Amino acid sequence: MVEDEETSRETLRNYINKYCENVEIIDECSNIKEGKKAIEEMAPDLVFLDVEMPFGNAFDLLEQLEVINFETVFVTAYSQYALKALNYSASYYILKPIDIDELESSIKKVRENIEMKNEDDFTLQTKVLLENFKHSQNKDKKVVLPVLDGFEVVQVNDIIRCVANDNFTDFHLLDGSKKVICRTLKFYDDVLNDSGFIRVHRSHLINVQYVKSYKKGKGGVVIMSDDSHVDVSASKKQNLLNYFS
Prior knowledge:
Blueprint: H1 6-19, H2 32-42, E1 46-49, E2 52-53, E3 56-57, H3 58-64, E4 71-76, H4 82-87, E5 92-95, H5 100-121, H6 124-134, E6 142-147, E7 150-155, E8 159-165, E9 168-173, E10 178-181, H7 185-192, E11 197-201, E12 204-207, E13 211-215, E14 221-224, E15 229-231, H8 237-244
Parallel strand pairs: 1-4, 4-5
Antiparallel strand pairs: 2-3, 6-7, 8-9, 8-12, 9-10, 11-12, 13-14, 14-15
């Protein structure tokens, strides 16, 4: 974030940490000189910008950057800059004092913008690669996971489970790592449905080879090899039981 008032930085920091899941503040700057240096060195996905600051304003900062490859949310006490912010392709414009609902809406809008960019960057070449992997033998099958700077290729057999996270999907892998991918669980349900994966809940897609046990209930609970407990919805329970019968 780039904000000259310490109290405003503290307020925004506290709100983000409390209300904005999966948003990490990587630096805080008090003027546009610091902001320019931080942006060029750290390549953030999102920058919160005050307008009036020492050594120039937010628009001066944006004009000094050779490339703007991040989302921008203006946070200011001045409503008269809204149109200019729009001309600079701002994702959102928040007036001080910060309203929590507005902050959450800004993050939602930023995530939608990033998802659209990732969709554009998921090129035909990558889609062809995905199709080739889908027709591989199960033991060699891979899946393409789009990330901000390209894509990663992961062995399907290394995926224990996938969890819906708003418009994102959390991939939990065999080595204990987690990858947050900017695509919906529905997309990966379609990709992995012929590779030993079952949708056991609207928020959970599991690799059946890593199921350790099942506990009865209205829908029940599946215990996975990583000791995670995955809820099974009542409507999808029979699907799961049929697989193991």
